[in-house]
Amino acid sequence: MSEKTRKLTMTDYLLAALLVLITLVCVAPILHTVAISLSDKSAVEGGKVLFVPVDFTWDAYMKMLDDAKFFRAFGVSVERVALGAGLQFILTVLMAYPMSMSTREFAGRNVYMWFIVFTMLFGGGLIPWYLVIKSLGLLNSIWALVIPSAVPVFNVILVMNFMRNLPKELKEASYIDGAGPWQLLLRIYIPVAVPALATVTLFSIVAHWNDFFQGLILMSRPENYPLQTYIQQLVVQLDLNETDSETLAQAAKLSNKSLNAAKIFVTIIPVLLVYPFLQRYFIHGITLGSVKE
Hints:
Layout: H1 10-37, H2 41-45, H3 59-65, H4 68-99, H5 109-121, H6 126-135, H7 153-164, H8 168-176, H9 181-192, H10 194-210, H11 213-218, H12 227-233, H13 245-253, H14 256-289
Helix pairs in contact: 1-14, 3-14, 4-7, 4-10, 4-12, 7-10, 7-14, 10-14
Protein backbone atom coordinates (compact mmCIF):
# COMPACT_ATOMS: atom_id res chain seq x y z
CA MET A 1 0.00 0.00 0.00
CA SER A 2 1.44 3.37 -0.99
CA GLU A 3 2.04 6.18 1.48
CA LYS A 4 -0.62 8.33 -0.19
CA THR A 5 -3.42 5.78 0.30
CA ARG A 6 -2.38 4.35 3.64
CA LYS A 7 -4.79 5.23 6.43
CA LEU A 8 -3.67 6.26 9.87
CA THR A 9 -3.97 3.51 12.45
CA MET A 10 -4.27 3.59 16.22
CA THR A 11 -0.54 2.89 16.43
CA ASP A 12 0.18 6.04 14.44
CA TYR A 13 -1.90 8.12 16.82
CA LEU A 14 -0.21 6.56 19.85
CA LEU A 15 3.24 7.24 18.42
CA ALA A 16 2.27 10.82 17.62
CA ALA A 17 0.96 11.29 21.17
CA LEU A 18 4.18 9.81 22.57
CA LEU A 19 6.32 12.18 20.48
CA VAL A 20 4.24 15.15 21.62
CA LEU A 21 4.67 14.07 25.24
CA ILE A 22 8.44 13.71 24.83
CA THR A 23 8.56 17.15 23.21
CA LEU A 24 6.67 18.70 26.12
CA VAL A 25 8.98 17.02 28.63
CA CYS A 26 11.99 18.51 26.81
CA VAL A 27 10.52 21.99 26.35
CA ALA A 28 8.94 22.34 29.80
CA PRO A 29 12.20 22.97 31.72
CA ILE A 30 13.18 25.69 29.25
CA LEU A 31 9.79 27.39 29.53
CA HIS A 32 9.96 27.17 33.32
CA THR A 33 13.43 28.71 33.33
CA VAL A 34 12.34 31.57 31.07
CA ALA A 35 9.25 32.19 33.20
CA ILE A 36 11.32 32.41 36.39
CA SER A 37 13.81 34.78 34.77
CA LEU A 38 10.98 37.14 33.77
CA SER A 39 9.02 37.03 37.03
CA ASP A 40 8.99 39.29 40.05
CA LYS A 41 11.00 38.35 43.12
CA SER A 42 7.98 37.79 45.37
CA ALA A 43 6.32 35.45 42.85
CA VAL A 44 9.51 33.45 42.39
CA GLU A 45 10.26 33.13 46.08
CA GLY A 46 6.64 32.19 46.74
CA GLY A 47 6.75 29.34 44.20
CA LYS A 48 3.96 30.82 42.08
CA VAL A 49 5.80 30.61 38.74
CA LEU A 50 5.31 27.61 36.50
CA PHE A 51 5.41 28.20 32.74
CA VAL A 52 4.08 31.76 32.50
CA PRO A 53 5.86 34.80 34.00
CA VAL A 54 4.15 36.34 37.01
CA ASP A 55 4.43 40.13 37.36
CA PHE A 56 6.59 40.41 34.26
CA THR A 57 9.93 42.17 34.78
CA TRP A 58 13.31 42.48 33.03
CA ASP A 59 15.22 43.14 36.26
CA ALA A 60 17.21 39.88 36.15
CA TYR A 61 18.39 40.46 32.58
CA MET A 62 19.14 44.13 33.22
CA LYS A 63 21.26 43.23 36.25
CA MET A 64 23.12 40.55 34.27
CA LEU A 65 23.69 42.68 31.17
CA ASP A 66 24.48 45.90 32.96
CA ASP A 67 28.09 44.87 33.30
CA ALA A 68 30.97 45.07 30.83
CA LYS A 69 32.38 41.84 32.29
CA PHE A 70 29.46 39.89 30.88
CA PHE A 71 30.10 41.06 27.33
CA ARG A 72 33.84 40.47 27.71
CA ALA A 73 33.21 36.92 28.90
CA PHE A 74 30.76 36.38 26.06
CA GLY A 75 33.39 37.52 23.58
CA VAL A 76 35.97 35.15 25.09
CA SER A 77 33.55 32.24 24.68
CA VAL A 78 32.80 33.16 21.06
CA GLU A 79 36.52 33.38 20.33
CA ARG A 80 37.10 30.06 22.08
CA VAL A 81 34.37 28.32 20.09
CA ALA A 82 35.62 29.73 16.78
CA LEU A 83 39.26 28.79 17.39
CA GLY A 84 38.56 25.54 19.22
CA ALA A 85 35.97 24.13 16.84
CA GLY A 86 37.99 25.22 13.81
CA LEU A 87 41.20 23.66 15.10
CA GLN A 88 39.42 20.46 16.11
CA PHE A 89 37.83 20.22 12.67
CA ILE A 90 41.16 20.54 10.86
CA LEU A 91 43.09 18.15 13.10
CA THR A 92 40.26 15.62 13.22
CA VAL A 93 40.10 15.45 9.42
CA LEU A 94 43.88 15.30 9.01
CA MET A 95 44.10 12.49 11.56
CA ALA A 96 41.02 10.50 10.57
CA TYR A 97 41.81 10.54 6.83
CA PRO A 98 45.08 8.53 6.93
CA MET A 99 43.74 6.31 9.72
CA SER A 100 40.84 5.32 7.47
CA MET A 101 43.27 3.78 4.97
CA SER A 102 44.14 0.09 4.97
CA THR A 103 47.40 -1.21 6.43
CA ARG A 104 48.62 -1.77 2.88
CA GLU A 105 48.27 1.96 2.14
CA PHE A 106 49.41 3.12 5.60
CA ALA A 107 51.94 0.73 7.09
CA GLY A 108 51.99 2.31 10.57
CA ARG A 109 48.24 2.49 10.94
CA ASN A 110 47.94 -0.19 13.65
CA VAL A 111 50.66 1.42 15.77
CA TYR A 112 48.99 4.84 15.61
CA MET A 113 45.63 3.26 16.32
CA TRP A 114 47.03 1.70 19.47
CA PHE A 115 48.25 5.10 20.69
CA ILE A 116 44.85 6.65 19.93
CA VAL A 117 42.97 4.04 21.93
CA PHE A 118 45.52 4.31 24.75
CA THR A 119 44.80 8.04 25.16
CA MET A 120 41.10 7.26 25.51
CA LEU A 121 41.68 4.78 28.33
CA PHE A 122 44.44 6.48 30.32
CA GLY A 123 45.30 10.03 31.29
CA GLY A 124 48.09 11.73 33.19
CA GLY A 125 45.78 13.39 35.70
CA LEU A 126 44.81 16.96 36.47
CA ILE A 127 48.10 18.12 38.02
CA PRO A 128 50.41 16.94 35.18
CA TRP A 129 47.90 18.38 32.70
CA TYR A 130 48.07 21.76 34.45
CA LEU A 131 51.85 21.70 34.78
CA VAL A 132 52.30 20.97 31.07
CA ILE A 133 50.07 23.89 30.10
CA LYS A 134 51.89 26.14 32.56
CA SER A 135 55.32 25.10 31.27
CA LEU A 136 54.21 26.00 27.75
CA GLY A 137 53.31 29.51 28.91
CA LEU A 138 49.66 29.20 27.93
CA LEU A 139 48.07 30.24 31.22
CA ASN A 140 45.74 33.25 30.98
CA SER A 141 45.58 33.02 27.21
CA ILE A 142 42.85 31.86 24.85
CA TRP A 143 45.13 29.08 23.62
CA ALA A 144 45.02 27.42 27.04
CA LEU A 145 41.33 26.79 26.37
CA VAL A 146 41.88 25.58 22.81
CA ILE A 147 45.12 23.59 22.43
CA PRO A 148 44.71 20.99 25.25
CA SER A 149 41.53 19.66 23.61
CA ALA A 150 42.58 20.19 20.00
CA VAL A 151 42.45 16.46 19.11
CA PRO A 152 39.26 14.83 20.44
CA VAL A 153 39.92 11.11 20.06
CA PHE A 154 36.24 10.15 20.05
CA ASN A 155 35.58 12.50 17.12
CA VAL A 156 38.60 11.13 15.26
CA ILE A 157 37.33 7.55 15.59
CA LEU A 158 33.84 8.61 14.52
CA VAL A 159 35.07 10.32 11.34
CA MET A 160 37.61 7.58 10.66
CA ASN A 161 34.93 4.87 10.70
CA PHE A 162 32.71 7.00 8.48
CA MET A 163 35.49 7.37 5.91
CA ARG A 164 36.32 3.66 6.07
CA ASN A 165 32.73 2.85 5.14
CA LEU A 166 32.82 4.97 1.99
CA PRO A 167 32.78 2.97 -1.26
CA LYS A 168 36.25 1.98 -2.39
CA GLU A 169 35.21 2.74 -5.96
CA LEU A 170 35.35 6.46 -5.14
CA LYS A 171 39.00 6.21 -4.25
CA GLU A 172 39.85 3.98 -7.22
CA ALA A 173 38.06 6.26 -9.68
CA SER A 174 39.87 9.30 -8.25
CA TYR A 175 43.27 7.65 -8.61
CA ILE A 176 42.45 6.65 -12.19
CA ASP A 177 41.59 10.28 -12.95
CA GLY A 178 44.99 11.35 -11.61
CA ALA A 179 43.97 12.65 -8.18
CA GLY A 180 46.53 12.56 -5.39
CA PRO A 181 45.94 12.16 -1.64
CA TRP A 182 45.16 15.85 -1.08
CA GLN A 183 42.74 16.03 -4.02
CA LEU A 184 41.05 12.86 -2.77
CA LEU A 185 40.64 14.38 0.67
CA LEU A 186 39.47 17.85 -0.37
CA ARG A 187 37.28 16.96 -3.35
CA ILE A 188 35.90 13.54 -2.43
CA TYR A 189 36.18 12.60 1.24
CA ILE A 190 35.30 15.90 2.90
CA PRO A 191 32.20 16.63 0.74
CA VAL A 192 30.93 13.06 1.15
CA ALA A 193 31.67 13.01 4.90
CA VAL A 194 29.66 16.17 5.63
CA PRO A 195 27.20 14.32 7.94
CA ALA A 196 29.99 13.00 10.17
CA LEU A 197 31.90 16.28 10.09
CA ALA A 198 28.78 18.27 10.97
CA THR A 199 28.15 15.92 13.87
CA VAL A 200 31.63 16.24 15.38
CA THR A 201 31.54 20.01 14.78
CA LEU A 202 28.36 20.17 16.84
CA PHE A 203 30.08 18.14 19.57
CA SER A 204 33.01 20.57 19.53
CA ILE A 205 30.86 23.69 19.66
CA VAL A 206 28.77 22.42 22.56
CA ALA A 207 31.81 21.17 24.49
CA HIS A 208 33.70 24.45 24.19
CA TRP A 209 30.65 26.59 24.90
CA ASN A 210 29.50 24.67 27.99
CA ASP A 211 32.87 24.11 29.65
CA PHE A 212 33.61 26.23 32.71
CA PHE A 213 36.20 24.11 34.53
CA GLN A 214 39.16 24.84 32.26
CA GLY A 215 38.53 28.58 32.51
CA LEU A 216 38.38 28.28 36.28
CA ILE A 217 41.68 26.39 36.49
CA LEU A 218 43.71 28.03 33.71
CA MET A 219 42.61 31.66 34.09
CA SER A 220 43.72 33.60 37.14
CA ARG A 221 42.41 36.94 35.90
CA PRO A 222 38.61 37.39 35.78
CA GLU A 223 38.82 39.39 32.54
CA ASN A 224 39.99 36.21 30.78
CA TYR A 225 37.07 34.08 31.98
CA PRO A 226 34.85 32.50 29.31
CA LEU A 227 31.12 32.98 29.73
CA GLN A 228 30.41 29.74 31.59
CA THR A 229 33.20 30.38 34.10
CA TYR A 230 32.02 33.96 34.56
CA ILE A 231 28.49 32.78 35.26
CA GLN A 232 29.71 30.07 37.60
CA GLN A 233 31.68 32.65 39.58
CA LEU A 234 29.08 35.36 39.43
CA VAL A 235 27.34 35.94 42.75
CA VAL A 236 24.73 38.55 43.47
CA GLN A 237 26.52 41.01 45.73
CA LEU A 238 24.70 44.29 45.66
CA ASP A 239 26.53 46.98 47.56
CA LEU A 240 24.02 47.99 50.21
CA ASN A 241 26.39 50.67 51.47
CA GLU A 242 25.37 52.75 48.49
CA THR A 243 22.56 55.10 49.33
CA ASP A 244 21.37 55.34 45.74
CA SER A 245 17.62 54.71 45.80
CA GLU A 246 17.68 52.96 42.42
CA THR A 247 20.26 50.43 43.67
CA LEU A 248 18.24 49.70 46.79
CA ALA A 249 15.07 49.28 44.75
CA GLN A 250 16.82 46.82 42.46
CA ALA A 251 18.05 44.83 45.46
CA ALA A 252 14.49 44.58 46.73
CA LYS A 253 13.14 43.36 43.37
CA LEU A 254 15.87 40.95 42.31
CA SER A 255 15.86 37.25 43.20
CA ASN A 256 18.83 34.91 43.01
CA LYS A 257 16.60 32.35 41.34
CA SER A 258 15.56 34.83 38.65
CA LEU A 259 19.14 35.88 37.99
CA ASN A 260 20.36 32.27 37.77
CA ALA A 261 17.50 31.42 35.42
CA ALA A 262 18.42 34.36 33.21
CA LYS A 263 22.03 33.17 33.10
CA ILE A 264 21.00 29.65 32.13
CA PHE A 265 18.70 30.83 29.37
CA VAL A 266 21.25 33.22 27.87
CA THR A 267 23.91 30.51 27.75
CA ILE A 268 21.73 28.04 25.85
CA ILE A 269 20.61 30.53 23.17
CA PRO A 270 23.73 30.12 20.94
CA VAL A 271 23.42 26.31 21.01
CA LEU A 272 19.72 26.56 20.17
CA LEU A 273 20.58 28.76 17.19
CA VAL A 274 23.32 26.47 15.86
CA TYR A 275 21.66 23.10 16.43
CA PRO A 276 18.84 23.40 13.83
CA PHE A 277 21.37 23.91 11.03
CA LEU A 278 23.34 20.77 11.97
CA GLN A 279 20.51 18.58 13.24
CA ARG A 280 19.68 17.05 9.86
CA TYR A 281 23.20 15.61 9.69
CA PHE A 282 23.33 14.48 13.31
CA ILE A 283 21.61 11.08 13.30
CA HIS A 284 23.00 10.07 9.90
CA GLY A 285 26.54 11.05 10.82
CA ILE A 286 26.76 9.49 14.26
CA THR A 287 25.11 6.24 13.08
CA LEU A 288 27.36 5.64 10.09
CA GLY A 289 30.44 6.79 11.96
CA SER A 290 29.86 4.40 14.82
CA VAL A 291 29.69 1.30 12.59
CA LYS A 292 32.91 -0.42 11.68
CA GLU A 293 33.33 -2.96 8.89
